[in-house]
Amino acid sequence: MFASAGYSVCIFEINESLVQAGIGRIRGNLNTMQKDSLTRGPLTTEEAMGNVRGTIDLREALHGAIYAQESTMESEVFKKDIFTKIDLLADSETVLASSTSTIPASLFTEKLKNRGRCLVVHPINPPLYLTLTEIIPAPWTEESAVEKAVQIMKNIGQTPVRLHKEVLGFAVNRLQYALLAESWRLVKDGVLEAEDVDLVMSEGLGPRYAFQGPLHTMHLNALGIEDYCTRYAAGLRRVLADFGPNPTFEEPEVIEKISSSMQKRVTDHTAALDERKANLARLAKLKKE
Ligand SMILES: NC(=O)c1ccc[n+]([C@@H]2O[C@H](COP(=O)([O-])OP(=O)(O)OC[C@H]3O[C@@H](n4cnc5c(N)ncnc54)[C@H](O)[C@@H]3O)[C@@H](O)[C@H]2O)c1
């Protein structure tokens, strides 16, 4: 996406074959974006590839960079280690972003000399088709670094959403987990079959929220948000008070129910992922229009 938007990109990996594999995947993604008319700038695949190189030397990868996006394994220990290395080698202006989905930057950047330019910039999978990117500064992240990250995300066609403070799970997973908890309870309590939970989303709430979020929807579902609250607040409270405790997500009988439903619905995992990508590509095109 960076290359597609015209940025010069250097990827760093731990060995030469992974560098080459990464570059191959970038080419594949650029071709896909071109085919789907979803490129993030005016460049063709070949032009964008002219801006992409790779290295196994972290110093070289960081040299002269305005922005670094760390996307290594999801582990606090590992993030601490890689950010310590990046901190030693980074130029004095580089914004140092982590893709981490769950680990606040304050847990792995506190001791770094460049901590004022460290933050989380969390994309959503698959980012070629879902443009949301959560931006979560640590308490010590400088405003200028946040603004730079926001601007770069806009420049590559992403939709940055900034959190004002660190919170466990950030925004995406907090909302996602709330939905997963109730989906789980509905199956566990025998209210819905697993496939019907998915239909409630895919044929109802999912498309409804694809263009307007839940608060926007509240506003439109009555004569404005004040009217919605006057009419429905008591009902909301009654239903919310009826929710059971949080699931452990380890209850074998629920896992078994969901798993047997999924075995019927997904016979080829890779094909199902490809189908999801194709559908999201169509939706992304529609949203772009
Ligand atoms: N996969 C997703 O859907 C997704 C979405 C958003 C954010 N993220 C976040 O992105 C990060 C990476 O996730 P992933 O699923 O791609 O993980 P992954 O395990 O598939 O990939 C990790 C990559 O890090 C490389 N690596 C290993 N050791 C390294 C080192 N010492 N230095 C540099 N690179 C090294 C590996 O070769 C590999 O390419 C995680 O923090 C994850 O939370 C993932």
Number of helices: 12
CATH fold-level label of the largest domain: N-(1-d-carboxylethyl)-l-norvaline Dehydrogenase, domain 2
Taken as a percent bin, the fraction of beta residues is 5-15%
Mean pLDDT: 97
Report the bound ligands by name, code or SMILES. Answer: nicotinamide-adenine-dinucleotide
The backbone outline, from C-alpha atoms, is globular
InterPro entries: 3-OHacyl-CoA_DH_CS (IPR006180), 3-OHacyl-CoA_DH_NAD-bd (IPR006176), 3HC_DH_C (IPR006108), 6-PGluconate_DH-like_C_sf (IPR008927), 6PGD_dom2 (IPR013328), NAD(P)-bd_dom_sf (IPR036291)
Family: Belongs to the 3-hydroxyacyl-CoA dehydrogenase family.
Domain 3-hydroxyacyl-CoA dehydrogenase NAD binding: 1-166
Pfam family, one: 3HCDH_N
Folded structure, characterized:
- By secondary structure, the protein is α/β, with parallel strands linked by helices.
- It has three domains: 56 residues, no CATH class; 102 residues, NAD(P)-binding Rossmann-like Domain (Rossmann fold, 3-Layer(aba) Sandwich); 117 residues, N-(1-d-carboxylethyl)-l-norvaline Dehydrogenase, domain 2 (Orthogonal Bundle), CATH 1.10.1040.
- The chain contains twelve helices and seven strands.
- The strands form two sheets. It has a five-stranded mixed β-sheet with strand order 3-4-5-6-7, sandwiched between helices. It has a two-stranded parallel ribbon with strand order 1-2.
- α9 crosses α10.
- The model has no long low-confidence stretch (mean pLDDT 97).
- It binds nicotinamide-adenine-dinucleotide.
- The site of nicotinamide-adenine-dinucleotide has 15 residues, from β5.
- Nicotinamide-adenine-dinucleotide binds next to β5.
